[in-house]
Amino acid sequence: MTSPLAYEKVWFEKCKYDEAERQYFEKLAKMDGIAALATNVNVELVNRLNNIEQNNVGLTKLVSDLQAVVKQLENRLKVLEVECKKSSPSVPCGAPTPASTPSSTPIKKETAEDDDDGVDLFASDSDEESEAAKKVKEERLAAYHAKKSKKPVLIAKSNIILDVKPWDDETDMKEMEKAVRAVETEGLLWGASKLVPLAYGIHKLQISCVVEDEKVSVDWLQEKLEEIEDYVQSVDIAAFNKV
Asked: What value, to the nearest 5°, has the Cα angle with vertex 85 and ends 79 and 90?
């Protein structure tokens, strides 16, 4: 006898039905999530609108209070203007009072007779006091100038580094340095020196010096060194600093 289950395909295709059921419930879950998200967005939007309405209410109240204060100030100003006009009707408010204005009455000039009546009984004493004050002032000025003259005068100096270049590699650099240091004048002090290589075995003499700006000119110093024609080809300033 044939079993009735042989005509039922659902048991043989159970996997397909299970997969279809799973997909159905997943779609339902996604739709529920979208609905919940939309609900949250609506709640947030409502909250923001409520906050804006509350802020508008607070601003409206603040504006109303300010308008009331301004109105009170205007009323107070009007009252003050009325009181000012009542107290001095002939003088506008804010104008200077007659007491503050300069008097137009001319000052009575003293006559020669008044001068004769006012005799200065202490004229000699005042003259002596003025002489004493004058003497004290002169002594103080003399002391100030003496103190000022004792202060050392600031001497402007410059620190210069010179590059003295020879003619060739056969130039005696020691003799050239001796000739350079032989240039002497008041306000010139030679310092340290060294030989700096240039090219092809040629070295330049780099030497420092300190000069007093008022006594020694840099151009004069360069010209004096370039006059040493037996050793010196050219002189350049490598550095120049105020001391």
From this structure: 175
Q: What pairing do the DSSP bridges indicate for beta strands 157-166 and 202-212?
A: antiparallel
Place of tokens 């004058």: 134
Read off the pTM: 0.39
Beta bridge partners, 194, equal 206
Q: What is the DSSP letter of 91?
A: S
Q: What does the block give as tokens for 131?
A: 């002489």
Amino acid (1-letter code) at residue 7: Y
- At position 194, the amino acid (one-letter code) is K
Q: Per-residue pLDDT tens for 9-44?
A: 555 666 777 777 788 878 777 777 666 666 665 677
The token pair at 213 is: 């700006």
Q: What angle is formed at CA 202 by the lines to CA 197 and CA 204, rounded to 5 degrees?
A: 60
Rounded alpha-carbon distances, angstroms, from residue 165 to 181, 190, 232, 237: 15, 17, 6, 11
Q: Using an 8 Å Cβ cutoff, are 227 and 164 in contact? A: no
pLDDT in tens, 189-207: 999 999 999 888 899 999 9
Neighbours of 230 (CB within 10 A): 11
pLDDT of the residue at 26 = 81
